[in-house]
Amino acid sequence: MEEGHTAAGIHPSFAKVIEQKKRIKDKLGNIKNKIGVYSAKGGVGKTTVSVNLAFTLAKRGFKVGLLDADIDCPNVTSFLGITEKMDISGFPLKPLVKDGVKVASTAMIVDDMKKPIIWRGPIIAKMLSDFFENTDWGNLDYLIIDLPPGTSDAPLTIMQLLDLKGFILVTTPQRISSVNSLRSGLMAKRLNVSILGVIENMSTGAISGNTKSIIDALGTELLGTIKLDSSFNKYSDNGMITVYNDENIANEFDAISKTIG
Ligand SMILES: Nc1ncnc2c1ncn2[C@@H]1O[C@H](COP(=O)(O)OP(=O)(O)O)[C@@H](O)[C@H]1O
Ligand SMILES: [Mg+2]
To answer: 4, 164, 215, 236 — which has fewest CB within 10 A?
Structure first.
């Protein structure tokens, strides 16, 4: 046996990750579908899509959880008007419930959300794995995971530790958005995570050539388009769920939700 390796010939650090992955798999064993909402670019609507998709699925009768995996800039609670903190005096952590959807976010743990959260990669990875290992989600049909932008730390941790059904890639008609979405998609492919499809957000008409090109390059499909609409800002600024307040947008999300379940 090579020095430092286990009897199975695995390096201890890999063995640790494999054990952790197994613990997380057991802990999240009652969740049927874990879906990440992702793009390497910020501001394209990942949080908007995560929140509205989660509540659309809940409206359709599914049991849904929503995990804010954007540790630095956790926006989900603000979009939902949640100001309560999670009880962290004992494990397992219990997500807070809003209109039947279970929600967990670092914003429910950090005391002062106005202060920047400045953590290095390993702490972010630890925070995420703690969330996965110690949160009691119960039985869920869907766990929607709102990812931060980028192609390192948090997305990498999630791709490595979770048994995802796949990612939904969010992009906008802009060329720079598709360039970054393609990068996100290629990262997912490299880590053997499925891509469920692409949503073109902030759409201004027919699907853009930029979005078409990444769908072709990734060999995936269009899940739907969401129009550019100031209602999103109006409702989310007031902690209101857009799909519960705007019928046209609700219809767009309803159609998208049916492509995944
Ligand atoms: N379809 C849309 N039309 C208009 N504004 C939108 C749309 N989607 C998202 N927004 C707004 O764009 C901003 C960025 O969205 P957000 O979901 O926070 O992006 P991300 O999570 O990718 O950084 C927010 O102010 C949000 O309300
Ligand atoms: Mg976001």
So the answer is: 4
Q: Is residue 203 part of a domain?
A: yes
Residue 22 located in a structural domain: no
Task: Give the model's pLDDT for residue 32.
Answer: 97
Task: Output the CA 177–ligand 2 centroid distance in Å.
Answer: 14
pLDDT digits (tens, 9 = 90+) for 180-219: 999 999 999 999 999 999 999 999 999 999 999 999 999 9
Asked if 153 contacts 147 with a C-beta cutoff of 8 angstroms, the reply is: no
CA dist., res. 16 & res. 20, Å (int): 6
State the pTM of this model: 0.93
Measured in Å, residue 232 CA sits from the centre of ligand 1 at: 7
Residue 99 lies in a domain: yes
Q: 10 Å Cβ neighbour count for 217?
A: 13
Distance 68 CA to ligand 2 centre (A): 8
Look at ligand 1, atom 27, and give the residue with the nearest C-alpha: 233
In sequence order, the β-bridge partners of residue 105 are 68
Nearest ligand 1 atom to alpha carbon 75:
18
Indicate which ligand has the atom closest to the C-alpha of 45: 1
**Inside any domain, residue 16:** no
> How does strand 166-171 pair with strand 140-146?
unpaired
Amino acid at 183: R
Count of domains observed in the chain: 1
Ligand nearest to the CA of 52: 1
Q: Give me the domain span that covers residue 53.
A: 29-260
Residue 71: DSSP 8-state:
S
Task: Answer yes or no: is the C-beta of 101 below 6 A from any ligand 1 atom.
Answer: no
Residues, beta carbon < 5 Å, ion ligand 2:
46-47, 75
